[in-house]
Model the fold of this input.
Amino acid sequence: KAGVTQTPRYLIKTRGQQVTLSCSPISGHRSVSWYQQTPGQGLQFLFEYFSETQRNKGNFPGRFSGRQFSNSRSEMNVSTLELGDSALYLCASSIGQASYNEQFFGPGTRLTVL
Amino acid sequence: SQELEQSPQSLIVQEGKNLTINCTSSKTLYGLYWYKQKYGEGLIFLMMLQKGGEEKSHEKITAKLDEKKQQSSLHITASQPSHAGIYLCGADRDSGYELNFGKGTSLLVTP
Done:
């Protein structure tokens, strides 16, 4: 069974641009969660989707948004990029409700904002 | 919100030595997860603990959940260079839809 895949793996953008990251969950998994990891703040929850519905959102500005498609694939978008958005963005998938099922993480997308 | 504090922040041990990493929660733990991360990569699931007093082992790694103390410990026996990485504990947040993570413990195993 293929694991969680994230594309692209590395991305370099400049301030003010926008970016879209993609996550393909494990086949059969309906929940996709997104996390931001930085050296200072650690791993922080962005949002979680289940069956195309956002069930919860972390404490991030509205510039961070996401969506989930009918095939459970998910995208997250960051608009008007800031230097502080440089981070490793991880997505995780699980069969059902995220917190009561093992979450499988992808390799992450390393975003650098110049 | 639930805060998870991990100790120590970093650890350097000689190959073959045992070590313990702790994760303490500011709230009651209903589900505690341990992950390992190679630097700059995704997280690898190690173990999930749900019941007070629960203990699980996988190869040379043992994790325990002490619900009364709101604490979990991860013990590695006879450490190897392959154990090096960042160990993260995660716990269910109140919403039930996300995990809250500790800042991680960086482990280096020297020959």
DSSP finds no helices and eleven strands in chain A. Chain A has a mean pLDDT of 92. The interface with chain B takes residues 4, 33, 35, 42-45, 48, 50, 55-56, 58, 88, 90, 92, 97-100, 102-108, 110 of chain A (CB under 8 Å).
